[in-house]
Amino acid sequence: MKDQLISIEHLFVTLNGSHQPLLEDVNLTIKMGEMVGLIGESGSGKSLTSRAVTGLLPKEMRVSGRISYGGNNLLELSDKERYKQLGIKIGYIFQDYRGSFTPFIRIGKQMTETIRTHIKLTKKQSEQLAREVLNEVGLEDKTIYHRFPFQLSGGQIQRAAVAMTLALKPELIICDEMTTALDVITGEKVLNYLAKVQKETGCAVLIITHDLAQAYKHTNRIYVMQQGRIVEEGLSEEVRCHHKHPYTKKLCSCLLALPGEDLITTASQVMVK
Ligand SMILES: Nc1ncnc2c1ncn2[C@@H]1O[C@H](COP(=O)(O)OP(=O)(O)OP(=O)(O)O)[C@@H](O)[C@H]1O
Ligand code: NI
């Protein structure tokens, strides 16, 4: 399809020496301007899927299938070609945010250097942009800009990483558990900023999360993953109200009911198997 931005087709990932694939025939597409959710319990393969897109799978894994993006198969790109795509075209917010910055270089310096690698701006303009995006995610630029990463809390580093990625205005943003390190209010603030950038730039977003409420609120379409496979896909509202797969039903029963629906159970009471 013409308006498809990225298309993952028959993706298999297997650990060397093992026969049991970690990802099995994963198919997932994202259109221009779409916000797509990828949900599933811990260990179901969400991060591996996003790592395959960005070429960051561990060396000891074999991968097959196709990831079409901009006329290329991302699985066949050289490291250099892939690096060119990352950042400016595909922005990736890591689940393990501690790796987002080098510990002993000040946040501001790292941000401006990254911005200038990808966008033609003067030093002054890139500093202004870095300060602007820090403020957008609720970090006071006056204090944070000159700090070293080790002087920030986990949630502050995570927000700085989000700010850094969004500053580059990529056409596809992959957020892997972007709000896990944040409290509810800060998390919502960051998600709202993401939605604002999405509206402004028309970029596509893949939100990986096990927070179903977040996925329903912020995405148009949802994929549900279980044990390395996509088990259900549909418009967020449909998946929420008319899910077909028993696993999705279990996941959904963890959510608080909408007004007018029966309250089922809370997350802590449900064992998802
Ligand atoms: N480096 C690795 N070596 C071996 N197995 C791995 C490696 N990384 C991930 N796996 C396995 O692959 C499977 C999928 O992992 P993945 O990180 O994609 O899960 P996830 O859905 O992102 O979970 P979470 O919600 O906890 O982040 C898991 O069974 C995990 O143990
Ligand atoms: Ni993960």
TrEMBL record:
**Principal localization?**
membrane
Task: Please name the Pfam families in this protein's record.
Answer: ABC_tran (PF00005)
Q: Which GO terms describe its molecular function?
A: ABC-type nickel transporter activity; ATP binding; ATP hydrolysis activity
- Tell me which EC number(s) this protein carries: 7.2.2.11
The protein's matches in InterPro entries, at most eight in alphabetical order, are given as: AAA+_ATPase, ABC_Ni/Peptide_Import, ABC_transporter-like_ATP-bd, ABC_transporter-like_CS, P-loop_NTPase
Key words of the record: ATP-binding, Cell membrane, Ion transport, Membrane, Nickel, Nickel transport, Nucleotide-binding, Translocase, Transport
Per the record, membrane topology reads: Peripheral membrane protein
Query: Matching Gene3D superfamilies, A to Z?
Result: P-loop containing nucleotide triphosphate hydrolases
Write out the annotated subcellular location.
Cell membrane
Could you confirm whether the keyword Translocase appears in this record?
A: yes
Tell me the CDD domains matching this sequence: ABC_NikE_OppD_transporters
Give the reactions, separated by semicolons, that this protein catalyses. Answer: Ni(2+)(out) + ATP + H2O = Ni(2+)(in) + ADP + phosphate + H(+)
- ABC transporter domain residues are 6-252
Q: Which GO cellular component terms, listed alphabetically, does the Swiss-Prot or TrEMBL entry include?
A: plasma membrane
Subunit text: The complex is composed of two ATP-binding proteins (NikD and NikE), two transmembrane proteins (NikB and NikC) and a solute-binding protein (NikA).
Family, similarity comment: Belongs to the ABC transporter superfamily.
Q: What is this protein called?
A: Nickel import system ATP-binding protein NikD
According to its UniProt entry, this protein's organism is: Natronobacillus azotifigens
